[in-house]
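User: Before I run my own analysis I want an independent prediction to cross-check against. Here's the chain; please return only the structure tokens and, at the end, one sentence I can use as a sanity check.
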Amino acid sequence: MGKANNSGPSILLVDDRKENLLALEAILDAPGLNIFTATSGNEALGLMLEHEFAIVLLDVQMPEMDGFEVADLMRQNERTRFIPIIFVTAINKEERYISKGYETGGVDYLFKPLDPAVLKSKINTFLELYRHKKELEKSKQQIEKQNERLKEISIRDGLTGLYNHRYFQEILNREFALARRNQSDIACFMIDLDYFKDVNDTFGHAFGDFVLQSFSALIRGIIRKTDVLARYGGEEFVLLLPHTGIEGARILAEKFRQKAEENIYKRNGHSRKVTSSIGISSFFTHSPSSASELVDYADKALYRAKAGGRNQVKIYREEELVKRDSSSGFELPHDDFIGLKERFKKIVETSRDAILASLSNLAQHPINSKSAGAETTKKIRENNLRTMEILDLMGERLGLPFPLVQTFKRAALIHDLFKIYLGDETAQKDTPLTKQEKLDIYDYPYMLEELTRIFDIFSDERTILRYHHENYDGSGYPESLKGDEVPIGARLFALVDAFVAMSSGRPYRPTLTAQEVITELEKQSGHQFDPMLVKLLLELVNEKKLPVNFTLTDQQVNTIL
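Assistant: Structure tokens:
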């Protein structure tokens, strides 16, 4: 019978006379070739069902079942129908037998005695064809695997492994069409992680990514296999729940919200709770005219959940559902809503500027006895303008968005207004600071944070002000954050503020020379300051785009703050 002893191709020799099989084996034996033998048609068919053969040498004249009958049965079986057959005979040499051999699927018809050279040549031809076939199959399998992998990549979010926004749209349209055709309910959740920007700013994007991944796993552990969860964008997720009504959706949403509220994200010594807000809509309850409208309704409900204080679940037009007999509530068309949202953004920007202008007037008003004197105020104003210019240059070099750089500049302005208001007495002393004065300075970040909490529109600036005394090596305060754990705005402001301070002079020390400033920055690179930011700042100095020392005229001073 023979057996497979390597990974090479296999051939099957079928003849009722063992001496013929031994002769064929002797002729065909070669390294890497597996030779099987059978003395009957039934034995041959059994072997073909157990092994894969590149070719079969089949004797025509055999008792019980001749070669033609074996070939007929082979062609009737999906597993064996495409195996090449070479018929071998010593008797059936007439034309009608040869024709029958080809009709039953034979690829060749040889007469005994066989010429070894001819036989080996024909066998090698079919073995080569078999090898090409296997290589093509292997390539096809690899291509199919790659296509499957590419398809998986194209439909999955790279960070969370959830479906991405594009593929979700395909599923959404399909599931919505099914719900409408079958008149079955379907619910939609829009889920947002509360104050997620603060997570990134406080602990860095690596921790933020960890939170997104963990939150995704948390939801996947609760939903059904038939539910569809996707990352909609940033910290926003969307969930489709086929065959789910509004009450079932509400119960599940509350379960999500509670699980998120109880969960503590811990990594690399940091821990943080992150709550979630959820908006819900459903097909039967809200009668959306399209799949996109189903999501839009859930998004509007999410907006209400966030506007209402976050960490809560809201159903679209919930008040209308409770009071069906009351007059319909006012609902802005979507385009009007977007326009209104943009107008609100402009109002917020204008409000920020107005508040800063008011704070500036308050800091310099005569009624404020602690305010700094004229010379000190001028110096602070001068340094602030310099800080603003450097932040603009560094923001451009880093490729940061304009609104983000403006946030950094507002934080610097609030910081300097605070110094004017308090008189910056400790910074102006020409004698060593007392223990209490040191404690006062240590409290500055907390005081700045607390003051900005009065105006929630300065929440982004608050993060910078809280952490601008953190050092890159973790030796700073208030939380001893290290490296990228310190928000980029705080790292940048700390460097620029120190650069301006070193090059502008202080009562307790003379103005440093340009080389002394550069030497001090290089010394503190990787310790107090982010080495990447130091490198960029020194590049600006070397390119003459940033002078180490400069002075302002009185007219320039009066245009700032």
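Sanity check: The CA atoms of residues 471 and 528 lie 4 Å apart.
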